[in-house]
Design brief:
The chain is of the alpha+beta class. It has one domain: YlxR-like (Hypothetical Cytosolic Protein, Chain: A, 2-Layer Sandwich), CATH 3.30.1230.10. The protein is built from three helices and five strands. The chain has a three-stranded antiparallel sheet. It has a two-stranded antiparallel ribbon with strand order 1-2. A hairpin with a 5-residue loop joins strand 3 and strand 4. The longest helix is centred in the C-terminal third of the chain and has 15 residues. The radius of gyration is 12 Å and the shape is globular.
């Protein structure tokens, strides 16, 4: 039997399989973006594929804790736009 990698959502705190989650990555240059492939280099944090989890992560400072830095509101806004573009398809 193959082991399924689980990741914790930084919004709701639920443990789900890696394939069900979307990855937010902080690159070496300090850029924060969605990683749709799951293979980009950098520090990753996972969110459920629901808009509410992105909102919760903003309120409970989930990204700040994961990346150990302060995250400006513009980053959350750009993540929201990327998220809507990807899941509107």
């Amino acid at each position: 039997m193959k082991k399924i990698p689980l990741r914790q959502c930084i919004g709701c705190g639920e443990m789900k399989s890696k394939k069900e989650m979307m990855r937010v990555v902080k690159t070496a240059e300090g850029e924060i973006c969605l990683d749709l492939t799951g293979k980009k280099n950098g520090r990753g944090a996972y969110l459920c594929s629901q808009k509410e989890c992105l909102e919760k992560a903003g309120k409970n400072k989930g990204l700040e804790r994961s990346f150990k830095m302060s995250i400006p509101a513009e980053v959350y806004e750009s993540l929201r736009r990327e998220f809507e573009e990807e899941y509107a398809k």
